Amino acid sequence: MGLVLAVYGKGGIGKSTVSANLSAALAQEGASVLQIGCDPKHDSTFPLTGMLQNTVIDTLSMVNFHHEEVEYEDIIKKGFGGVDTVESGGPPAGSGCGGYVVGETVKLLKEFGVYSRYDVILFDVLGDVVCGGFSAPLNYADMAFIVATNDFDSIFAANRLCIAVEEKSTKCKVKLAGIIANKVDEEYGGGTALLEKFANRVQTTIATKIPYHDLIRRSRLAGKTLFQMEGEGKEQCTKPYQTLARKILNNELDLRVPKPMGEREIFDTISGWM
């Protein structure tokens, strides 16, 4: 089985952009990579493919949900750098459980024998509600990353995700590989002071820092990875991904079971950091 990563984070935090660029960086280091988008919005792989690809649900609906009529090639699309991509999809808004769809996608991919085909499999997972379905990738993951920014709501969500990783680690091999600090703007006070304190408190590390830069916004609009973009700041924006990719492939990360706070405790703790 290849190395399995699970990337989580609060909704809107930028985790899909982070995931796509990390997948691209891993591929540029020579790894065969599969990125699996686990969000009903099915936009995780957009920067890699430049399009909203058909989802597992789309494909299953065309054969009246007869799994045996679906081949792996029916749900996969090749993106930038040779990264293979899959989107689980989900029901229309307000009409069903997206977590159930993710859980079923994870099982279907297991039936296809996907977990032995790649050097790295990266799950990009909706992280606000860690229900059974959305936590399913943790059953297979070697390591989890939490994408977060230097603010209360993001850290509160990160703590809940630490709880999920801690719980899963009692039965599965998954460990927390650290926090990916996103939208870091040291010049205007948007640094990582709160994230550093939180990481220390829950006994993890800051795995890398992604800068706040307009090139990242433009890359997302263009449906491209940062490696495909041109302009000022490209090296600044791509270097954190390249460094993290090498650490992942060379087994240089500090994998730990986190020690999260209780939900009332985190309110009291963070307020004391202000």
Features:
8 strands; 274 residues; 9 helices; 8-stranded mixed sheet; globular; alpha/beta
Compile the SSE list and pairings.
Blueprint: E1 3-9, H1 15-28, E2 33-38, H2 46-49, H3 56-62, E3 77-78, E4 84-87, H4 98-111, E5 120-125, E6 143-148, H5 152-168, E7 175-184, H6 193-201, E8 206-211, H7 214-222, H8 234-249, H9 263-271
Parallel strand pairs: 1-5, 1-6, 2-4, 2-5, 6-7, 7-8
Antiparallel strand pairs: 3-4
Helix pairs in contact: 1-8, 5-9
Give a verbal description of the structure:
With 274 residues, the chain is α/β, with parallel strands linked by helices. It has an 8-stranded mixed β-sheet, with helices on both faces. Helix 1 crosses helix 8 and helix 5 runs antiparallel to helix 9. It is globular. The protein starts with a strand and ends with a helix. The model has no long low-confidence stretch (mean pLDDT 88).
| Sheet with the most strands, sense and barrel status | 8 strands, mixed
Structural class: alpha/beta
Helix content: 25-40%
Query: Per the principal axes of the C-alpha atoms, what is the gross shape?
Result: globular
Rg, Cα atoms, Å: 18 Å
| Count of alpha and pi helical runs | 9
Summarize, please.
By secondary structure, the protein is an alpha/beta fold.
